Amino acid sequence: MYAEVAVPVYVRQTFTYRLPEDISARAQVGCRVIVPFGKKLLTAFIVALHNHLDGEITSSDIKDVEELVDEVPIVGRDMLELTRWMSDYYYAPWGECLRTALPAGATVATEQVLTITDAGRSAIAHAQTGFGWSSSKNEVLELLAGAGAISSRELERQLSRSHATALIRQLERAGLIHVAHRVDDSRLRPKLQNAVRLLGKRNANGTDLPTADKPLSEQQQRVVELLTSTGEAVPLSELLEEAGVSASVVRTMEKRGMVEVFPSEVRRDPLAHISQEQMDLVILNEEQQRALDSIVAKLDEHEYATFLLHGVTGSGKTEIYIRAMREATLRGQSALMLVPEISLTPMFSRRLRTHFGDAVAILHSSLSEGERLDEWRRIKEGEAQVVIGTRSAVFAPLENLGIIIVDEEHETSYKQDETPRYHGRDTAIMRAVRARAVVVIGSATPSLESFHNARTGKSIYIRLEARYGNRPLADVQTVDMREVFKRHGKSQTFSDELKTAIAETHERGEQTIILLNRRGYSSFALCRSCGLAIRCPNCDVTLTYHRYNSSLLCHYCNYIRGVPRACPACDGQYIQYVGEGTEQLEAKLGELFPELSIARVDRDTTRRRGSLEHILMEFASGTIDMLVGTQMLAKGHDFHNVTLVGVISVDVGLSLPDFRAAERTFQLLTQVAGRAGRGHLPGRVIIQTYHPEHYSLVCAKDQDYDAFYQREISFRRAMHYPPFTALINICIKDKDFDRANLAAADLARELRQAARTSSIRVLGPAPAPLARLKGEHRFQILIKARSRRAARETLDLAMDRTAALGHNPRSISVEVDPISLM
Ligand code: ADP
Ligand code: ZN
């Protein structure tokens, strides 16, 4: 028997290994195996089993599978198919797609374990010296003789690294040591902790132990009472704390046969702190009910369908999602909901838990590895039928999937920015096609692609015209900062309009959100003598000044340095800090409005787990009057007392050299405007800009999606951008400039040669917009094609030829459907 396997490394093809007899009867498609790959051992996934070898491969080329990891397939057929599609579509190795689809730690680590052989022992005994015999070999042998077995990692620690690998190989070849491989899958195991259970009989009133030969001490008595009152096993640590006894008390009781201490599985539950009081379902209004009815009708047909739910912010989409998922579960189907970022909507996870109780599992990146794993296992075992999570939750191992919801489908965080560069929404749709499930993608500002799909009949369009309860949309006003500059004769952070509005809002006892999409204190540090801006040594960007820890930080590679006393170039004494970030904004607002309690929300203030949730809860409760922060604040929040949203500046985003700059800006402004006036009070939005005439701003001001779509789609059509063209962005990176340059030139030439139809255009190579990042030089090639398949065939051919020219395929990364060309 032979196994065809996908390996989680950068190569795109599958490999065939022989299955040794003891494994071959147990191996199944979807199981993991350990295989020798080059000099290493890797975890691979069996994607097919064959009785005979394919004509091209001869059995002497073939290596044996080392070990079978799973007795039961860890990947189901449907997930194999889905990852296969991903691998083709996104031009990524199948093994990497499979690894992405499983919880971290699924590709188990292996390590080499070294033991000394009899020949090795006698080599020491004879103190053999001779040609090629070195003292370091003797050292290794003596170490092994003393220690019994030792891992190669441990050995490397004791010797010099590069040296150790060579030594091990030589000693093994000489038969002096034995090398075995050990699989370390500890990360995939459930967490165990000691629990305590009462043994023996209880007397009638259940408070004493008659079997005890000696009377119980007072402490023992407390343990017995506690265990009796709960009636089941209690985790040891909990027992000790609650009974107020030390571990030795329990140990004595165990010895005397009064209790049993045993390892038991604990589930790490990320929603454990949420109470499960029952919540009433809201009564849907007519618009909502109609939307729900058409979704449910498709659910009953058990056929694939995609809906685009386009409703302004606050129109009640979330209520429809919850009801639609409920309908699926009532039909015995499972439901999956994807959200851009869970930590931004702590209240929402809470609501789901109250609706679906223990049937809800939650999957997102800020959970600990253990929590994620436990949730994944609960889903796999069928205990949870409703899953909410971020991008990778699209792979949740749900059976009998009825519905997938993709909330805020336009969000860029659905696209993974490392291999495999898949889009969560599009992968969800492909999953639904296979599972004959219904997909509902929702947004107040659908991506151009999704709206276009609805217009061309690829999805079913549902529009919610009004906010729930006919609350008016916020009143949006732009302030021309050029006028403000003229009025004051110098640049101002805050216009008078905004300052007045903040004061008035506070007087009414209402809350404000201020947005600036730039963290840090100042954007950069500039020498006033020579004009040098201090740059990152690894990247082609300036460093951002952070005042709280007086440092200069690179936002791309996290390079950090202290604040210079003098200019590193000319020794000038005057360093000026230019451009405001959220940290400075918070300070300035604090000075202007000392009576307001202000909190900042950006990546710097929310790094600690739970800190964002904490700030948002405080804001919801009204302890905080104003939030200042980055786009994290624009997303999905439902605060009823927020009546003012101020946007300090949008001009940087607008001027990015990216074909989605206008779309991004329009979405951001519409979303942030949607945070205002969600309760009974009307909302107001003030946007400060130097480009008030730009169509993104004009349409955002009117909150007119259709007008924006018309403008933007004609731009995309004219410029051959998505949705009219498939885009593939290729980035060539290398620490060495010439090598990157040459590889880019060769690849571009091969692409042009391989592109046989005129419907494929190859642009570049050109230096990437960030020409240097993390110490690597970057070049870009863009493919525009009418058909993705033709583009991929071209790419296949050209990549092979480029690799044949000796370029490292690892330095070339391919992104299909890039969301940004930056
Ligand atoms: P969206 O997701 O479209 O932004 P939400 O679903 O969050 O909108 O609804 C906005 C607000 O209106 C929320 O406070 C929500 O609880 C309320 N709401 C929506 N639909 C109903 C309904 N049918 N009954 C009562 N309240 C509703
Ligand atoms: Zn950097």
Which helices and strands, and how do they pair?
Layout: E1 2-6, E2 15-18, H1 21-24, E3 32-37, E4 40-50, E5 67-68, H2 77-89, H3 94-101, E6 109-116, H4 118-125, H5 135-147, E7 149-151, H6 152-158, H7 161-173, E8 177-184, E9 191-198, H8 218-230, E10 234-235, H9 236-243, H10 247-255, E11 259-266, H11 286-301, E12 305-311, H12 317-330, E13 334-338, H13 346-356, E14 360-363, H14 369-380, E15 386-389, E16 401-406, H15 424-435, E17 438-443, H16 448-455, E18 460-464, E19 475-480, H17 481-488, H18 496-507, E20 511-515, E21 522-527, E22 544-546, E23 551-553, E24 560-562, E25 575-580, H19 582-592, E26 598-601, H20 611-621, E27 626-629, E28 642-647, H21 651-654, H22 661-673, E29 684-689, H23 695-702, H24 705-718, E30 726-734, H25 737-754, E31 760-773, E32 776-785, H26 788-804, E33 812-816
Parallel strand pairs: 12-17, 12-18, 13-15, 13-16, 14-15, 16-17, 19-29, 20-27, 20-28, 26-27, 28-29
Antiparallel strand pairs: 1-2, 1-4, 3-4, 3-5, 6-7, 6-8, 9-10, 9-11, 21-25, 22-23, 23-24, 30-32, 30-33, 31-32
The protein binds adenosine-5'-diphosphate and zinc ion (ZN).
Q: How would you characterize the overall build of this protein?
A:
The protein has 822 residues and is an alpha/beta fold. It is 35% helix and 23% strand. The chain is built from 26 helices and 33 strands. It has a seven-stranded parallel beta sheet, sandwiched between helices. Strand 22 (544-546) and strand 23 (551-553) form a beta hairpin. It is globular. The model has no long low-confidence stretch (mean pLDDT 87). Bound molecules: adenosine-5'-diphosphate and zinc ion.
